[in-house]
Amino acid sequence: MKRIGVFGGAFNPLHIGHLINAEFVGNEFNLDKILFIPTKIPPHKKLSGPISDKIRIKMIKKAIKEYPYFEFSDIEIKREKVSYTIDTLIELSKKYPDSKLYLIIGNEWLDRFNTWYRYEDIFKYVKLIILRRVKNKYSKTNLPDFLKKFHSKIIFASNPVINISSTYIRKLIRKGFNIKYMVPEVVRKYIKKYNLYIGEIK
Predict the structure, then answer these.
(1) Would residue 25 count as lying in a domain?
(2) For the chain, what is the domain count?
(3) How many Å apart are CA 126 and CA 76, to the nearest integer?
(4) pLDDT tens across 129-188, in order?
(5) Would you give the end-to-end CA distance of the chain in angstroms?
(6) In whole angstroms, what is the distance from residue 90 CA to residue 194 CA?
């Protein structure tokens, strides 16, 4: 039975932290494949700036091309409505009926995971792999009350903390700063070539 990681997000843009974390959990939990799934319409925030789905997709594909077990999925991009995780997992469970699915999320979501649409149903389809972030107040023995009954389906990764965000990278670009080493080089060149994020107002 194959083990598939489900890694969603705006990826606006995809940065080196995304790749480091995906590579780390892939190794730590012996995943056979990790799906990078950009959101179409995020339920918890708005996409920032005038960057099209097509451009985000190109950057993701360029960034993961050299990783043999990283794979792009347009499952949410094709869906012309809010990108609810439960809908994506139901589709993926049908596409990969003989595989185990692992949803990869940051630990900043743990205390508000109950705000996710049909959050309890998510555990019918996946185990959660929790990435370490800068603030790491939760652990296997210290979960929010509403998650304690799902403790057997929550796994904590021991990944290195990468304090980089897409929001921070966009701010640096607007200031004219160099983002070398913060994003894959192919992504940096693509952003520079097409002057992406320069015109954002924020």
Answers:
(1) yes
(2) 1
(3) 17
(4) 999 987 778 888 899 999 999 999 999 999 999 999 999 999 999 999 999 999 999 999
(5) 46
(6) 36
Domain holding 135, by residue range, is: 2-163
**Residue 123 is encoded by which pair of tokens?**
């555990």
Residue 6, helix vs strand vs coil: strand
Helices (H), 101-196: 119-122, 166-174, 185-193
C-alpha span between 126 and 96 (Å, rounded): 12
CA distances from 129 to 139, 156, 196 (A): 12, 6, 32
What is residue 108's three-state secondary structure? Answer: helix
Whether 188 maps to a domain, the answer reads no
Q: Give the pLDDT confidence of 76-112 residue by residue, as tens digits.
A: 999 988 889 999 999 999 999 999 999 999 999 999 9
For residue 68, what are its two tokens? 């043999």
Give the Cα separation of 57 and 11 in Å (integer): 9
How far, in Å, CA of 11 to CA of 166, rounded? 7
- Cα 157 to Cα 16, 24, 89, 152, 195: the distances in Å are 18, 9, 21, 14, 36
Q: What residues have CB less than 8 Å from 43, skipping those under 6 apart?
A: 82, 83, 84, 116, 117
At 99, which CATH number? 3.40.50.620
pTM: 0.94
